[in-house]
Amino acid sequence: MQFQVIIIGAGPAGCSTSLFLSKHKIPHLIIDKSCFPRDKICGDALSGKVIEVLKKYDENIVQSMAADSSHFLGSWGVKFVAPNGKALDIPFKQNTNAEQHAPGFISRRMHFDAFMVQQLDLNYATLWTGVEVKNITSILENKCINIIKEGQEQMLECKVVVGCDGDRSIVEKSLLPRSMDPKHYCAGIRAYFKNVSGLHPQNFIELHFLEELLPGYLWIFPLGDGSCNVGAGMLSEYAGSKKINLRVQMLKAIANNKNINERFADAQLEGKIQGWGLPLGSKKRKLSGDGFLLAGDAASLIDPFTGEGIGNALYSGYFAAEAIAQAIALNDYSAKFFAVHYDQPLYNRLWAELKLSHKMQQLSKYNQLFNFVVDRAHKSATLRNTISCMFEDLDLRAQFKNPVFWWKMMIGK
Ligand SMILES: Cc1cc2nc3c(=O)[nH]c(=O)nc-3n(C[C@H](O)[C@H](O)[C@H](O)COP(=O)(O)OP(=O)(O)OC[C@H]3O[C@@H](n4cnc5c(N)ncnc54)[C@H](O)[C@@H]3O)c2cc1C
After folding, report:
1. Is residue 257 in a domain?
2. Nearest ligand 1 atom to alpha carbon 15
3. Residue 371 CB less than 6 A away from ligand 1
4. Within a domain: 382
5. What is the pLDDT, as a whole number, of residue 361?
C-alpha cells in the first residue's frame, strides 16, 4: 500500500502534524499501536505553549477545552517551593481580568489525547489505531514500514515518514539509531491521589524542590475531578549514579517532609505509581534525514527544567507539516532539504528557551542557591515579574544581559 505521508504515533506530536497537514489539504495516514482513549504517564499540565499552537490551528479548540472544566481544569499560575519550605506564587499572566480563559490547563492524558484524536480532519487523515509499527527500512527513495494490523504482517510504502512515536521511538531506532544520554534524559514517576489538601484557589500547579529529591523535584497538579496528579522527576545521570529509587523517595517525602506531609494526611493513592522517561531537549540533535522527520519525544524536545513536552511536541508537529508541504511542492524529500526546512526553523523557535531551562536545571542542584533565589523573589518585584514573564514567553535574554536587572534583584526591588 502506498501513501505520500505516514505519521507514526497519534499522541500530541502526531495529532499536531496531522492537523497542520490537513490545513494544507495533504492526505496522509496516521497510525498508533494503542486505541484511544489511552493513558500516557505524564504530569498532565498543558502550558501556554499548548494553547498557542492549538490557536494557530483553530481558536475554537481552546474554547471547547475551557468550556469543559471537569476534564480541562484552568490553571492561573505556578507555586515554587524552595527546600527550606518558603513558597513563591507566580501568576502566568499579570492581568487576569483581560483573559477569556485560563492561560494553562491540567487534563488527564486519557482525556486530552483522545480529545486531540477527535479533532483530526478525516477528509485528509486516515487514522489506524491498534496497529503497531515493527520496523522501517529505506528502499530507493521510499520508506517501507512493516506493521502488524489485525494480527497480520503488512508492508506500507511512503515518500516521507514522521516519527511521532514518543520515547523509545521505532522510527529513530530504525533510521537514526543513537543511545540514551543520561545527562540529557530524566526519569519520571506519576501517581494520582484523592484528598490532597491546601490546593491553590486558582489551581496553581506546584513544584516542590525537596531535599530528598534534589536535583529533581516533586509536583502536585490539581485536576478537574478533585484529585491530583503527583509525581517526581530527576536527571538519569544523578538517579543512576546515586542509586536513587524515585518511588521510595517520593513516598518518603509525602510521609515525612514537613513542607508537604500534612497535606497528604487524608490522601489516598488511586491505582499504581508508574514510571516513564523524559528525553530532554538540552542538547541539539539531528531531527530529520532522507525521507523522514522526528517530532515530539522522538526528537527529544522536553524542557529540561519544567519537564514540559506537550507544547514542544505540538510545535514540532506544526513545523513538520510546514516542511512536508514545501517538500511536496518542490518534490524534494532529501536530508539536506529537511535540515533547512525543519530542524532549523524548529530550533529557531525552541532553542533559546531550552538553553535557558538547561542552565536553570543545572543551578537547581544547589539547594542553598534555590533557597536564596526564592528568598530574593519574595523581596524583589523585578525577579517575580521576570519569572512570571518566563511563562508568558517574553524574550528574557535581553533582561538577563542587563546589569540593572541583576542589581534590582540583588537589592530586592
Ligand atoms: C512522568 C512524566 C511527567 C510529564 N509531565 C508533563 C507535563 O506535566 N506537561 C507536559 O507538557 N509534558 C509532560 N511530560 C512530557 C510529555 O508526556 C511528552 O513530552 C509528550 O507526551 C510527548 O508527546 P509525543 O506525541 O511526542 O509522544 P507520546 O505522547 O508518547 O505519544 C506517542 C504515541 O506513539 C505511539 N507509538 C509508540 N510506538 C509505536 C509503534 N511502534 N507503532 C505505532 N504507534 C506507536 C504510542 O502509542 C503513543 O500514542 C511528562 C513526561 C513524563 C514521563
Report:
1. no
2. 25
3. no
4. no
5. 85
Minimal-distance CA residue to ligand 1 atom 51: 42
* Residue 380 covered by a domain: no
Beta strand extents in 330-395 (DSSP E only):
none
380, 413 Cβ separation under 8 angstroms: yes
What angle is formed at CA 305 by the lines to CA 7 and CA 12, rounded to 5 degrees? 20
- Cβ atoms 141, 157 nearer than 8 A: no
Cell of 324: 512536508
* Strand pairing class (288-289; 205-208): unpaired
Instruction: Indicate whether 375 belongs to any domain.
Output: no
- Is the Cβ atom of 108 under 6 angstroms away from ligand 1? no
Look at the chain and report how many structural domains it folds into: 1
Substitution candidate for ligand 1 out of 42, 170, 213 with most atoms within 8 A of CB: 42
DSSP state of 343: I
pLDDT in the model for residue 409: 53
- What separation in angstroms does the CA of 46 have from each of 106, 148, 273, 310? 6, 32, 21, 7
Q: Which domain holds residue 111?
A: 2-73+105-180+281-360
Q: What is the CATH number of the domain that holds 111?
A: 3.50.50.60
Q: Tell me, using a 6 A CB cutoff, whether residue 13 lines ligand 1.
A: yes
234 lines ligand 1 (CB under 6 A): no
> What is the best residue among 127, 303, 310, 315 to mutate for testing ligand 1's pocket, by most ligand atoms within 8 Å of CB?
310
Q: Is 390 exposed, middle or buried (0-12, 13-18, 19+ CB in 10 A)?
A: buried
Pocket test for ligand 1, best of 204, 297, 314, 357 (most atoms within 8 A of CB): 297
78: its cell numbers: 505556578
Answer for the pair 36, 10: CB distance below 8 angstroms, yes or no: yes
- For the ranges 127-141, 340-354, 355-369, the lowest mean pLDDT is seen at 355-369
Contacts of 133 (CB under 8 A, 6+ apart): 8, 31, 33, 145, 146, 147, 165, 170, 171
Distances (CA, A) of 330 to 31, 323, 324, 325: 26, 11, 10, 9
Q: Which is the closest atom of ligand 1 to the Cα of 106? A: 8
Distances (CA, A) of 411 to 215, 284, 377, 378, 401: 27, 36, 11, 12, 17
Q: Which set of grid coordinates corresponds to residue 186?
A: 530524566
Task: Please write the tens of the pLDDT for every residue from 3-25.
Answer: 999 999 999 999 999 999 999 99
**pTM for the complete prediction?**
0.94
| Residue 323: all three cell numbers together | 516542511
